[in-house]
C-alpha cells in the first residue's frame, strides 16, 4: 500500500474496532436471541462473540497490498469463535481460497491480498437467522442491526474510494450474497447506503464494484461455471467482470 492507502485503512480499522466494542455492549440482549434463532435448525455450538471484529485487520501492514475487497453477509459459527474471530474461515472461506489458488492468473492470494468484510458484524449461525432477531428483538436490537449495516456500507465504500484514489493497485469490491440484496432481503439498507456513498463517484462504482452469488454451497462456482460455459471465449478475469457487472445491474437496477 502507499502511505496514503495505509493511513486510510488504519482509520477504517480503528473506527471499526471501536464500533464493535460499542456494539458488543448489546451482547447480553443479542446472545439469547442468537441462541434461540439457531435452536431449530443448527446443532448447539459455543457462542463466544456476539459482534465480531476481524483480528486479520490487526495483522495487515503497510507493506501488504489490498488487491480485492470481499463483502460477505455476517459472521457465522466459525468466525465468532474466540480462537478465530476472523471472517470467512469456515467452508465458504475454503471454497473462496481454493478458487483463487486454482486461478493463479488472477494474482490474488485470498488470505494475503483480500480484505474481507461483512454487511453487518452481528453474528448468527445462518444469515437468515437475522430475521428472527429482527422479529423478536427489542427496538434497540432492531436499531442496532440497521445501524450496523448503514455504518458498514458507508465506511466500506469510503475506504474503497480512498484506496482507488492512488495510482497503484486499485482494488475491486465484490459483494457476495445475491439473494439478500434484492426484493425484501435482509441487506436492503446496506445496499441503499452503499450506492448512496458512491453518488459523486459513479465511475468508481461502475468500474470496481461487482456482485456475485455467495461462496457457500458452491453457489459462486456454479454460477461462474454456467456463465463461462455460455461464453467460452472469455478468460476467467473477463468472465468475472462480465458476470459481476450483470448481477450488479440486476441488484442495483442500473
| C-alpha-based Rg, rounded | 18 Å
- Give the fraction of residues assigned to helices: 40-55%
Class of secondary structure makeup:
alpha/beta
* Amount of beta strand: 5-15%
Shape label? globular
Low-confidence stretches: none
Tally the helices: what do you get? Answer: 10
| Average pLDDT rating | 96
Distance between the termini: 32 Å
Q: Which H/E pattern describes the elements? A: HHEHHEHHEHHEHH
> What does the largest sheet look like?
4 strands, parallel
Order of strands, main sheet, comes to 2-1-3-4
Please count the beta strands (DSSP E, at least 2 residues each).
Answer: 4
SSE layout and pairing:
Blueprint: H1 3-23, H2 27-38, E1 68-72, H3 91-102, H4 110-113, E2 114-118, H5 129-136, H6 139-164, E3 172-176, H7 188-197, H8 202-208, E4 209-212, H9 219-230, H10 236-252
Parallel strand pairs: 1-2, 1-3, 3-4
Helix pairs in contact: 1-6, 2-5, 6-7
Outline the structure in words.
- This protein is α/β, with parallel strands linked by helices and 254 residues long.
- It has ten helices and four strands, in the order ααβααβααβααβαα.
- It has helices spanning 3-23, 27-38, 91-102, 110-113, 129-136, 139-164, 188-197, 202-208, 219-230, 236-252, and strands at 68-72, 114-118, 172-176, 209-212.
- Strands 2-1-3-4 form a four-stranded parallel β-sheet.
- The longest helix has 26 residues, at 139-164.
- The protein is globular.
- The two termini are 32 Å apart.
- The mean pLDDT is 96.
